[in-house]
Amino acid sequence: MAEAEQQSGSTPEDEAHAVPGSITFMVPKKEISMVSDMGKWKRSQAYADYMGFVLTLNEGVKGKKLTCDYKVSETVEKLLDLLETLDRWINETPPVDQPSRFGNKAYRSWSAKLDQEAEALVAAMLPADRCAAAPEIAVYLKESVGNATRIDYGTGHEAAFAAFLCCLCKVGALRVDDQLAIVFKVFNRYLAVMRKLQKTYRMEPAGSQGVWGLDDFQFLPFIWGSAQLVDHSTLEPRHFLDERVVNDHQQDFMFLECIKFINEMKTGPFAEHSNQLWNISAVPSWSKVNQGLIRMYKAECLEKFPVIQHFKFGSLLSIQPGKT
Prior knowledge:
This protein is an all-alpha fold. It has helices at residues 3-6, 12-18, 38-42, 45-61, 74-92, 106-123, 134-143, 155-170, 179-200, 220-228, 243-249, 254-265, 270-273, 275-280, 286-302, 305-308; strands at residues 29-30, 152-153, 204-205, 312-313.
């Protein structure tokens, strides 16, 4: 694992020990209210912990297929049950007839159900001595599924789900040997539920940069998905423009699964509707793609005020300055 990347943040190796038993949990709240607050975020323990978590998982999945063997713990099973519940609620909350094509208002009923049930869902997967953390951790789950007012979804909501998983590591519900299952089972299932939400309720992309953004809705699966392909013997970045290659290998690689979803949802030349990804196809190696996407994620998501103004901070992901 890349030592330098892990020094300032907490990682699944030390997450279980990161939170003292005497900690007072708190309901997270917004702390970044103006652009000048962004420095506070970048110096915070939350930023260090969040990036440490993303980068540790990035190292963990390098060179591994979605279909490889890995441990599935009881907590992972509970997380999959939780996501199955969210999926079932979509089936039970069909779209309503409305004049507007986008932003189906039935989404608000679905979202209200999660608001109501989130704490109980989270409490069910916490160790007995950590149940007091449920109200704090549940906030990140509620934030991870989109915005009920605007009926939109974007990378800030995706970040809230990664923060939710990071918090579960910090309280010891998830462990170091859950790394592969966190990405390949839990995050992948979360992606499937989010895609179903986006399609069912015609959700708008939050803060979309149109053709100049990497993707309308997601970013992390491109980072972790490119890590999976590092040093692959035959698949190069240029190959993801070939639909046949994508269809043949999407069950093994998250990056190609994302490309398949884009191909299904968008029409016209790939270079026009997904220009940034098209440019990435010219990069010579997956290692360089992976490094470039991490830099881009920091610049385009984590360092953008419109995204981070919505992020919430508590005792587990703290706005306090990081330990140096």
